[in-house]
Amino acid sequence: MKPNDLERRKFLAGLAAGAGILRAADSGMIYRKLGRTGEKVSAIGLGGHHIGRPKDENEGIKIIRSALDRGMNFLDNCWDYHDGVSEIRMGKALRDGYRQKAFLMTKFDGRTKEATAKQIDESLQRLQSDHIDLMQFHENIRLEDPDRFFAPEGALEALTEAKKAGKIRYIGFTGHKDPLVHLRMLDMAAQHKFHFDTCQMPLNVMDAHFRSFTHQVVPRLVKEGIAVLGMKSMGDGNVLKSGAVTPIECLHYALSLPTSVVINGCESMERLDQAFEAARTFKPMSEAEMATLLDKTRQAAMTGKFEPFKTTSHFDGTAQHPEWMG
């Protein structure tokens, strides 16, 4: 292990250990602060893409309502998931008083003011809500994406107007390709004196070794008071194909980082139960425990084979559908 790797690991483990645990007595769900927003959110969030996977929409609605009833209040989604089906299902699930239980997040693909404004309004309509708690710039995966976000007539102008109109409350960005692109977005935000509320990225036992968001981006987010949203703790199942880790270990590792939320895809009640079991049994991993787990995954991680969202275009929706960006 390199000395700087050890120092980073100690830093991250110390942050996570110092965060404390607020746990629901009935479900065992953990709650954490969302950066500087003052919001309290479930430490495991419900992934929006997987909600669109069951053939029967009632199954997706059942999963969402069960998650909310049991205290998983952070809901993830995106304007483009399953051509809008994920948002439509979530909108139906949020009827009958369920909207009040949720901290609702979705994402947009627009790179222009016009496209962004249009997608925000379409998401609001599908989600059957007068506001979205957190709106995030989706797939910050190209070096020019930060330029587009801050450009005249760019996405930020639409977000600012939507926030003033009460359509959205907080603003963040996501990406799964390379930590350098995230760092460039943060650099440009500093130049424009803009503060993101959240930032979402892959955080898993493979990421620690390869193009690492954990080591390169997370410490800066913590320093700047930007909430850390982890995703792909199991890499849509790809991390598990290594045979080195179990699903619960994957979730416990991501929860042991200074994350506000670890977003977890649950396309079945069984997967939802697994997430709650991970929350119920969670205690922050020690530095030694994290080192042992990462040593088990080091060799498998080095080529990026088990993180294809970094090394292939398969997960790049905006690359496959450039028309989404406007």
Report on this structure.
This protein is an alpha/beta fold. It has 15 helices and 11 strands. The longest helix has 15 residues, at 3-17.
Average pLDDT confidence is: 94
**Broad shape:** globular
What Rg do the Cα atoms give? Answer: 18 Å
Helix amount: 40-55%
Number of helices: 15
How many DSSP E strands? 11
Question: Can you list the strand order of the major beta sheet?
Answer: 4-11-10-9-8-7-6-5
List the uncertain runs.
Answer: none
The description of the largest β-sheet is: 8 strands, parallel
Tell me what portion of residues adopts beta-strand conformation.
5-15%
Between the first and last Cα atoms, what is the distance in angstroms? 45 Å
Structural class: alpha/beta
The SSE string, one letter per element, is HEEEEHHEHEHEHHEHEHHEHEHHHH
Summed up, what is this model?
With 326 residues, this protein is of the alpha/beta class.
Give the secondary structure arrangement, pairings included:
Blueprint: H1 3-17, E1 22-23, E2 30-33, E3 40-42, E4 44-46, H2 48-51, H3 57-69, E5 74-75, H4 85-93, E6 103-108, H5 113-127, E7 132-137, H6 145-150, H7 155-164, E8 168-174, H8 179-191, E9 198-202, H9 213-216, H10 218-224, E10 227-231, H11 247-256, E11 261-264, H12 269-280, H13 287-301, H14 308-311, H15 317-320
Parallel strand pairs: 4-11, 5-6, 6-7, 7-8, 8-9, 9-10, 10-11
Antiparallel strand pairs: 1-2, 2-3
Helix pairs in contact: 3-4, 4-5, 5-7, 11-12
